Each structure stands twice: as C-alpha cells, then as structure tokens.
Amino acid sequence: MSIYSRAVDAAYTRAINTTSRFVPMHWQIRAIEQLIKAKRMTLGERPVPRFVEEVLPEVEAVPLHEIDVSNPFLYRQGKWQSYFKRLRDEAPVHFQAESPFGPFWSVTRYDDILFVDKHHELFSAEPIIVLGDRPEGMALKTFIAMDPPRHDVERQAVQAVVAPKNLKEMEGLIRQRTQEVLDDLPLDQPFDWVETVSIELTGRMLATLLDFPYEKRHLLTYWSDLIAGSPEMTGGAFSDKSEVFSAAADMALHFAQLWRDKKARHADGTPHGFDLISLMQSNADTANLIDEPLVFLGNLSLLIVGGNDTTRNSMTGGVLAMHENPAEFEKLKATPGLISNMVSEIIRWQTPLAYMRRVAKQDVELGGRTIRKGDRVVMWYASGNRDERKIDNPDAFLIDRKGARNHLSFGFGIHRCMGNRLAEMQLRILWEELLQRFDRIEVVGEPERVQSNFVRGYARMMVKLSAKA
C-alpha cells in the first residue's frame, strides 16, 4: 500500500470511528454507499475486473510467463492441477505481471509456502489476504490481515471459543444438530447436498458460535457468500454493488443489536457466555470494539467466512471424494476408526481456501528469484497440498494416508486457522453419523463449482442416499 493510500485509509478509518458514537453503523454504511455513488458520477468508477467464462487452454499451450493461476474459472473447469504442476516443475516461484488483479508472485511448492507462512517478519498479511482489492467503500479490517502486535491481541480475544474445553462442551450439540439434519434427508431420490446438508449444518454452527438468532441463521451463510464473492477480490460472481451494501448494512444492524443486547444483559448481572460476542466483550482489549466499526464488522466477517466456506466445502468435497473413490468408502465402512485420519485427508484433498496473500516487507530471495519489497506474494495451498516432492501420490484420495494432518490447508505460523479443531470435529461427527445411517452415497451428475480463485467450493451437488440395511 502506498503512503498516499495509507493516509487516505487512516483518515477514512478515523472518520468512521468518530461518527460511530452518534450515527448507527448501518446508517454509516448507507452513507458510504451514497458517497461512493456520488464519487462515481463526478470522478468516475474505479476499474473492476469483469470475468466472462471461456474455455481455458491446456497448460502446455500457454507460454510459461503468461500462466495466470488467478483465473477464477481454473478450478471450475478442472484444469488447476495441470497448471499448478507445471509451475511447481518449471517455475515454482512465478511472476505474473498482467493479471486482472495486478502483478503478483505465485509460490507453489510445499516447502516454499511453509517458508513464507512462517516468516511474518518478512511477509505482511496486511491489508487483505485475498489477491484483489476490497470493494470501494468496504475497507473492513480483520485480525487475520493484521501483523503483530494488533493481530495477536485481537486473535487472543476470541480464541477461547475454540479452546479444547469449549469444543468438548459443544460436541454434544453439534452431534444432535447433525443427527437432526441427516434424519430428515430423503432416501433413494436425488437432492442438493450443498443446500440441504453443508450449508444447513454450517449455518447452525455459526449461529451457535455467535449466539445469533437461530431462525435467521441463513443470513450468516448468505453474508459469507457475498463477502468472499466480489469480482475485484476473488474473481467472484457477485457484482451487484447495491446488494453488497444492503447486506453489509443488514449485517451491521444485526450484529450491533446483538452486541448491545448482550452488553445490557451483562450489565444486569447475567454472566458472560462462551460465544464470540461475549468473549470479545469480556476482554479488555476488545470490549469496545464496536466503536471501531471497520474492525468490528471485519472480524465478524472473518469469523463467518472462516466458519462457512472451509467446513461447508469440505463437507461437500468429502462426499465427492468418496463417490470418486468407492474403494475408499468401502475401506471406511470396514474400518470406521479411520474417520479422524480421513477428515485430514478430505481437508488436504479439497483445500477449501486455495491460498493466502502476503506482501513482502523487504527484498527476499526465494527459489532463485528476487521478490521486491512491496510485491504481492500468493501462497497457493491448493498447489502445495499436491506437491509430489513432499506428498506421495498426492492426487490420490487415501483415507489411511500416513501423515495426513501435515497438509497446508490451515496454514502455518501465527495466522494458522484458529478454528481448525472445530472444523475437524464437525467433519468427524458428520461422517460418524453418516456411517450409522447410509450404506451408499451416490453423487448424481456433475457438481456445480463456484466462480472464484479463492474459495474452492460447490454451489450445487445432487446426491442420492441408500439406507443402511
């Protein structure tokens, strides 16, 4: 970020924080929307990449320097493996100068990714962890996109929600809700697994973690899809700016109300709970986070996206992996004790978030290339998890794979996924309950994959279940 951009960002943040004392947060967002509209009419619109799907060429037909793995259709068209393999083999630290998101470095081998992820003193996570820019007027700030010391303070404030003691207390509730969803599934007729199971279960879990109104849980996954799906950030399909601002205002309204209700209850003597809002209110460093709307909304957005896209797409990806590898499903039915190991293999195989972005804080030599200070660097976890140099037979899905948990999907270092144990527990419970009920899980037709260079997810996947005899 340039000095000018930093100054503008700081002034913008101060203005939002100051007015938050007397202007409700959702009104602030509506005011920002009007300012952006006025700016577009007078000064013009900031360029936003437009993506129209075309059939991608085979990677062998593309000159090495032109390979662009930021294309949001690479995963949807099933060509990501060949593109990343060529980069790993021929240019493991690869510079793409003319992507729609601007120039960036791709780091594609396992060990190089590990180096970047562990050296936060060399590579900054600020101001954003995805490849593109934030939508104009939506400069939300999240702790995953902060460097120490502020990252450490804000992460610490919410980390307790996924502490082992809390997870143990949540396990019974997660199992009960999983059983409820699975018991209502139709037998011997196709239904959409994504909508009926993956989204429903993650929505229920997010509502629990945030103590959000249960009957409105669908809003959480809807907001998450919008947040992660803008074209300028990830090449996503959500280009309706009015819908994005409306969703942001609605989200601000709901969470500000939830925050104030909890604060009033605590003031009346109700003990703090173990939900994320209560944990932030009970920590001195984040007790007044609502006075910083961009950080408040940013961190809640992060927790929603982190809890939604990763687990939900691993739930769907696991079913697809079993369908494509029926011998592994038979192995699992014969040896249910493999479920925990299989969960790690599903997360590696699916890699629900393809990458994290960093910015070099200084010149760095990596893989024989010189990354200059200020350059954007993308750690492609999706590629590292298929690196033949580190993982035997990496394209195979093996539920008894040795060292399955040594995947990159959760990241490493100070930014390692906070909710990794919760995600593993949700997936473990899902498969324990599936094995209790169903003898056959068949994917009917080709799954519909989302348009994104960040989320490796599914919009729709038809499935047919056969009951266990």
UniProtKB/TrEMBL annotation:
Keyword Heme: yes
Cofactor: heme
Keywords: Heme, Iron, Metal-binding, Monooxygenase, Oxidoreductase
InterPro entries: Cyt_P450 (IPR001128), Cyt_P450_B (IPR002397), Cyt_P450_CS (IPR017972), Cyt_P450_sf (IPR036396)
Coiled-coil ranges from the UniProt annotation: none
GO molecular function terms noted in the UniProt entry: heme binding; iron ion binding; monooxygenase activity; oxidoreductase activity, acting on paired donors, with incorporation or reduction of molecular oxygen
UniProt record similarity statement: Belongs to the cytochrome P450 family.
CDD domains hit by this protein: CYP142-like
Record keyword Iron present: yes
The protein's name: Cytochrome P450
Chain ranges passing through the membrane: none
Organism: Oceanococcus atlanticus
Domain of life: Bacteria
Pfam families linked: p450 (PF00067)
